[in-house]
Amino acid sequence: MRLSTKGRYAVMAMVDLANTSQGSPVALADIAERQEISLSYLEQLFAKLRKGGLVKSVRGPGGGYLLAFPSDVTRISDIILAVDEPIHTTRCAAGSPAGCRTNRSRCLTHDLWEELGNQIHLYLSSVTIADVVHRRVLGTSGLVLRSPAKASAVAAE
Amino acid sequence: MRLSTKGRYAVMAMVDLANTSQGSPVALADIAERQEISLSYLEQLFAKLRKGGLVKSVRGPGGGYLLAFPSDVTRISDIILAVDEPIHTTRCAAGSPAGCRTNRSRCLTHDLWEELGNQIHLYLSSVTIADVVHRRVLGTSGLVLRSPAKASAVAAE
DNA sequence: ATAATTCTTGACCGGTTTTCTCGGGTATCA
DNA sequence: TGATACCCGAGAAAACCGGTCAAGAATTAT
Fold it and tell me: To bridge B25 with a disulfide, which of A109, A135, B48, B58 should be the other Cys (CB 3.0-4.6 Å)?
């Protein structure tokens, strides 16, 4: 799961769309103005969102985009996965987990990155567009560690 | 909290260092070879790690680097913070939260990114170098949501 | 019909950031 | 004094980001 500004823009736009649309299509130009994102760039993002099945488009005058699902169904992770092609965090991951095994201590960190990816995905999967619109994003320490090792040390930052 | 290859390299190197060193200094050239990272680049990373107080250096023949603390004390988040200068994820965050308030629906996503950063930091703070060396990284779903909204939907990826 | 509106698609580009290299230092030890 | 290994700053190479441009297709209003 990649985290770039592209993904952030897409989420901002989708939240804006959910927040603005009352069942009727919203033109990209409107979203572009409100969110201060260039129209051409938004077009690229929504092309991917449409391919991902997250929005529907309505052409012609009065047209625009609509959410394909109610805002409490689409999760933030869906949006980011739709616009940001995945990244290889482990250097050995996809193609050849072989090189991982041959070199003894090489990929000690492999599990770490994989698990971190899981954590991020888990969090972004727990938040829907509706949650963001209604500011229902969990406050700090919304998550609880199963084994709270050194939980106190966290504050030391 | 930023997540780049630079941070990953630093973590790989620190884990290798912890795994190799038996109290005696480890030369960067050795780490560079094992982890397949260029020596010159490693030198840059360790310069920052040294400034951050995470490692000690020993010059001259037989010299190298040593962990400044036992491996179960240094957390992964410490390493990443030492080498990757922080980033502004929200575009309005640091300098002027003003622009955030004036534009009504502009920064609905602000809280989301902030909270995501917290989640990542929280996880990386819960893992120490020793945890990685001994493969004590939590398996999937090591975290439990306080309010498990749509927990089932996560599997649908 | 036809014109206006809006999405659709794909190629391309300049600037910034990130990653990495190079070359020369400096401390330390045999 | 020479070999080892850290130390440091200037840049080159590559990737990425945010954006532009242009041509086209579908739909609706007139």
Answer: B58
